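Sample pair:
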Amino acid sequence: MTPDPAPRATSRSDPGLGELLGGRAGAVDASVPVVAFVLAWVLAGHLGSAYPINWGAGAAIVAGAGVAVWRLARGRRPRAVLFGLAGVVAAAAVALITGRASDFFLVQIVSNAGSALAWAISIVVRWPLLGVVVGGLLGQRTRWRRDPDLLRGYQRASWAWVCQYVIRLSVFLPLWAADQVVLLGLARTVVSPVLVGLSVLVSWPLLRTALPGDHPGIRHPR
């Protein structure tokens, strides 16, 4: 009779990727300026303002600053907070310059395209970005790359993130081309957090199933 395989050490010793990445909370925070932009733009337009984009941009920046203060108060890294706020300011500036409200989402669309490309390239060149991120959070630097099982697992799991960026683009690009500001705001608020959550959820089994049963787990590269 064939003995049962040894239980995975990863099931007990490893933290979940959701615990490490905290993806959904950040995605929800990032949606607040978007909601503020769309609501202010719609309201200003209904009230007959000649410059509804100005109101939308101002509301987004104020909301982004509020989120930044909230994140700092909760101990988030100042650099990450400032990058998030800079993204909101850049999005508002693009919309103000072009005079097209849907261009508020252009920075996000370009960022998604760049992210999809970067994640795909990282897998091909054997520097999967999921490994870079998780390895950095665990204080491993690049030790995980010397473990062929972990490297393969991070490569496999990183495809989930490539897919979520591609799905975002397939939703956002047609809406942007059709100048559907409200639908863009709705899609950005609903789709992005859901996709981030699903990516975190799917990445973990993809990573774990690439590891042999006797592997000590992602905390302990071999």
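Residues 21-208 form one domain.
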